[in-house]
Amino acid sequence: MITPSSPIEAVLGAGIKPKKRQRIVDGLGLHTVGDLLRHFPRRYLETGRLTRVEELEEGRLLTLVGDVVTSTVNTYNDRRTGRPAYRLDVTVRTDGPRLRMSFFAKSRRTAEWNAGRLAPGTRGIFLGKLGSFRGEWQLTNPQTVLTGSEEESAAQMSLDALGEYYPIYPLTHGVDSWDLQRAVTFALTVLDDVPELLPAEVRERYDVLDARTAYDWIHAPHDLGQVGRAQRRFRFEEALVTQLVLGRRRRELTALGAQARTGDQGSLLKRFDERLPFELTAGQREVGAEVERELGLPHPMHRLLQGEVGSGKTVVALRAMLRVVDSGGQAALLAPTEVLAQQHHRSITAMLGDLAAGGMLGGDPDATTVELLTGSMAKGQRTGPLSRIASGEAGIVIGTHALLEDTVMFADLGLVVVDEQHRFGVEQRAALTDKAGTPPHVLVMTATPIPRTVAMTVFGDLETSTLTELPAGRAPIQTNVVPLADRPQWVDRVWERVREEVTKGHQAYVVCPRIVRDELEQGEHDQLDLDEEGNLVVDRTGTGLASVADVSADLADGPLRGLRIGVLHGRLPAEEKDRTMRAFGAGDLDVLVSTTVIEVGVDVANATAMVLLDAERFGVSQLHQLRGRVGRGGFPGLCLLLTRAEVGSAARDRLDAVAATTDGFELSRVDLEQRREGDVLGKSQSGYRSSLQNLRVLRDEQTILDARSAAADLLDADYELRQVPHLAAAVVELEQSVASEFMEKS
Ligand code: ADP
Ligand code: MG
């Protein structure tokens, strides 16, 4: 008996040669009949519209079936490049006249590979626009679906034998859609039963198809409506299994418990509020109350604080930290860069004043201590902070990745705040929360959630608070794309604008993708732009990109001569970075040429202009963050995105999207559309791996929400899922695959 767990061999049929079998099994990873059924068509050819060859007409879109009669590779001279180019010319016999088809190729190898596929005797479906060449009808680069050799397919294949919608599968070299379509058809005829993961009540309640019908419809639909219904079924199923894994995890976490931090052992927060030099915005007050409530619960808070760049997230976090200190615990603030950690330390100690003067002789007994810990601090410099952190004397600890090291021990870590969360990996956050005895409360903050975070909020795995209003005194930022491909001369105007801002007494940032020519800034490999298939969209290994070294020298020598120019990048010593930032903050520098080290948190109110060179090299959230460095002091900000990306390219679309809105949440959705969501369950953060096969978080938001409520009901009724064994097996399988990936990585 053939079941979904039978080896795929069982349905491949004798006509398929061993080499091809191996390609199906190893190349496509289809080991079982079930794998084959789960290999869904990428699209469908509407064969109902097969064109009769008598009706030929120039410019018309043709779909036709035919047999290759001749197939020759020709070399010709490309007039545009002056180089030899290659073309495969094929004649195809149809049920009407013969047609000529040309397939152009960049290399002889490609042309010859194509000739191999389209050898005489091959039958296929061809789709393309009809043209004529020297008085003969021809198709140029038609889409082709090969359906096996003439003998192989003659019996099965005629215009009528084709279904109305012919499935086109994701393929590998040497395997054609036809091979898979035949195997699937056979499998669906011989399979008695397919396992049904979804209980009947759930299917009924959420209006999803049963498994058997869904498989039939997705592989051999009569109309596209059936495809849609079948897809919804499989998406729902995937969402449900994912939600069950997440739901079980959440319940386990809640069961672990956390210490409630009610803030009744001190008065720091109260006294801090009294001395705050500004009024909290309504949003800050609301989020503050929400966070306080959750800190007071006996299970861990896990909350995302989204808020526009400059919306005042830090003060919300600081108030939460004080609350925890008032409860006798400690709070840690993790920042992604040394520059930002230093800045937080400066501004938080300044805001706290004598409230942070704990430990001083004769000082306020209720005051606490704020410690800074960064990677560049020497061993000797760390001793004091480390012992005050371990003893619990330090209530607030600010730092970079250095906080994650084993030598850092807390007396009672009650709250972890992760600033600019989009810059951290999941492992890094876990390393810090592991330092607490009982699970700590966690607050993560960002203006531009990364795709995975947006995905987690859609899945409901992260509670979200949002600060929408900006504190008074914020001015708008004007963003323009400067298209150097079409308008190279505009670059002069860019530097004139910078000079004008400086003349008005303001300052400017110039950001480059490189430190020195052709070298990457550290951590940059984490931010590759990848498409759905994991291919590089933007080639970041490209040469000739603007570098801090070149640009600062060129500007000082040319368009910005006479201005005070500083440089900043990740490879400078910590003291030098600190010194440069202080000088820029104090107005002793006019222009700061830097890499993306200034991306997050840097706060210089007098800076009004930002010029981004080779802007297509930066991701959407990076661009948005960088732009947030200007317009902070009540003066209108100007952000110029210089690019050589062509109109219509994905890179250019991204820049246009950034120029069109200053709404960070909207932009994070743009980002998600372009980059996919990463893995909602596991570790991968940068959007190139996903446990999601058929789901797209934005498109399927409603399905994911439906699945969440279905999962909650199932878990309430039957936590072990004993009543639904197939579903339980799928949940365990997913849990294990996530766990094993975790083991591999750690
Ligand atoms: P972000 O949300 O981008 O991290 P910050 O927390 O750095 O923003 O806040 C930006 C600036 O706004 C800081 O200088 C901060 O002191 C100031 N700020 C925060 N809240 C208010 C407020 N309610 N009124 C006025 N200024 C505020
Ligand atoms: Mg901030």
Overview of the molecule:
- The protein is α/β, with parallel strands linked by helices and 746 residues long.
- Among the domains are: 47-164, Nucleic acid-binding proteins (OB fold (Dihydrolipoamide Acetyltransferase, E2P), Beta Barrel), CATH 2.40.50; 477-661, P-loop containing nucleotide triphosphate hydrolases (Rossmann fold, 3-Layer(aba) Sandwich), CATH 3.40.50.300.
- It contains 24 helices and 21 strands.
- Strands 11-12-10-13-14-9-15 form a seven-stranded parallel sheet, sandwiched between helices. The chain has a six-stranded parallel sheet with strand order 16-21-20-17-19-18, sandwiched between helices.
- Helix 15 links the parallel strand 13 and strand 14 (441-446).
- Bound molecules: adenosine-5'-diphosphate and magnesium ion.
- Magnesium ion is lined by residues 313-314, 419, 601.
Low-confidence stretches: 150-161, 520-543, 683-690, 742-746
Distance from N terminus to C terminus (CA atoms, Å) equals 42 Å
Count of distinct strands = 21
Radius of gyration: 31 Å
The CATH homology group name of the domain at 477-661:
P-loop containing nucleotide triphosphate hydrolases
The CATH class name of the domain at 477-661 reads Alpha Beta
User: What's the tally of helices?
Assistant: 24
The CATH topology name of the domain at 477-661 reads: Rossmann fold
Instruction: Characterize the largest beta sheet: strand count, sense, and whether it forms a barrel.
Output: 7 strands, parallel
- Secondary structural class: alpha/beta
Please give the share of residues in helix: 25-40%
Strand order of the largest sheet: 11-12-10-13-14-9-15
Q: Average pLDDT across residues?
A: 83
Small ligands present: adenosine-5'-diphosphate, magnesium ion
The percent range for strand residues is 15-25%
CATH architecture term of the domain at 477-661: 3-Layer(aba) Sandwich
Give the overall shape, derived from the CA principal axes. globular
GO molecular function, one term: DNA helicase activity
Protein name: ATP-dependent DNA helicase RecG
Domain Helicase ATP-binding: 294-467
EC number: 3.6.4.12
